[in-house]
Each structure stands twice: as structure tokens, then as C-alpha cells.
Amino acid sequence: MKEQRNGLLLVVSGPAGVGKGTLDKALMERNHKIKMSVSATTRAPRPGEIEGVHYFFKTEEEFKTMVERGEFLEYMHVFGSNYYGTPRSFVEQQLANGYDVILEIDVNGAMNVKRSFPDAVLIFITAPSMSEIKSRLIGRGTETMEQVEKRFATAFEEIKMIPHYDYVIVNDVVDVAVHHMEAILEAERCRTARSAFVSEAIEEIGR
User: CA angle, 194 as apex, 191 and 195 as ends, to 5°?
Assistant: First the structure.
């Protein structure tokens, strides 16, 4: 029996400044069968952005039609202006082709995906301490102190959601954290519920 496996959907969340993007990029560099999910949005393309690579660009009417048809794993309306969402068809196609797909979204989006795609693997990324999260936010130097304080307050609410995730990774040393993500992937691939080998073996035994 030769096993043909589908990919895994990894939902990655965590407070701003904990290094989610850094870990996701490092994981993909070390594993060529992992891709980032491509979101749909109603905002206009920015210079250099490519349809189907950076985003799927939709009109508001097209987006709302997709919502009505249940074509999103999750979606959100940002600041009362643009819509963003994760097209189910893109994710399912990549998974069927054997690619693992990373979906980096906030905790609310992650809970929506958990409901609409129960097979997803939810990973929460955090820093070693709350003070370290604040230090990293300040160290980015991209926001005012008022914005930093707002993100820091949000981090407390996000961390309360950790029990709803399958795994938590403390990003202290990047290489170690990436190794933990790879270990999660390997463990999840070995789950009996995901194994075509198990179902085929049981079927063969029953003949």
C-alpha cells in the first residue's frame, strides 16, 4: 500500500511582535512543500502586487457573493472599509496537492477556521514573557508609544485564547522555535485519523 497524503492546514496566531512572520518564513525556507495561504481582499492592488500571488483582488460585490456562498474559511471587515478573507477553494486545492498551508491570522479568525475546518492545526506563538512582548514592540520602532500600549493591551486578550489552540510555541530562539513547528508537523502527519494507510489496512483485513 502506497500512502498519498493531503497537506496540513496550519493556523498561526499570536500577539504582534512575537515573530510569527519570521518563523513562518524560516519554516518555508526549510520545507519546500509548505506554502502561505493567499487571501482575498476588496482593497486596490498596491504597486508590485500580483493577482493570485499576494492577494485575490475582488470587488465588494464579488466578495459578498463569495460570503453568501460560504466560500471563505474566515473573513473580516477591517475598519469599516475593506474586506479580507481566506478562500476555501485555494486552501483545499493546495492541501489536495500535498502542500501544507500556513494561515497567519488573528485569534478571532483562527476560531472561525476551527469551526469551518476542524482538521486545521492551530499553533499559538508567543514570547517568553509579557515584558518581552512589550520590548519587542518598542524595538520594532514602527509605532508610537500610544500604538504600542494598544497592541500590548490586545496581547493580554489574545493570550487568554491559548487554551483553544492545539499547540503553543515560545519564540525565544528562532531555530529552536522552527524546530518545534517541524516537530508538530511530523506528529500531526502520524495521526491515525489522517493516515490513508490505516483505513486501507483495515479495509484489506476485512476482505
Answer: 90
What CATH superfamily classification does 9-37+100-205 receive? P-loop containing nucleotide triphosphate hydrolases (3.40.50.300)
Asked whether the beta carbons of 151 and 14 are under 8 A apart, the reply is no
Concatenate the DSSP letters of all residues of 157-180 into one string. Answer: HHHTTGGGSSEEEE-SSHHHHHHH
pTM score of the predicted model = 0.88
Where are the extended beta strands (E) located within 82-120? 82-87, 100-104
| Whole-number Å distance between alpha carbons of 48 and 33 | 25
77: helix, strand or coil: strand
How far apart (Å, rounded) are the C-alpha atoms in residues 139 and 136? 5
Mapped onto helix, strand or coil, the DSSP state of residue 127 is: coil
- pLDDT of 129-141, one tens digit each? 999 999 999 999 9
C-alpha separations of 145 from 17, 46, 53, 138, 150 in Å: 14, 28, 34, 8, 9
In the chain, domain spans: 9-37+100-205
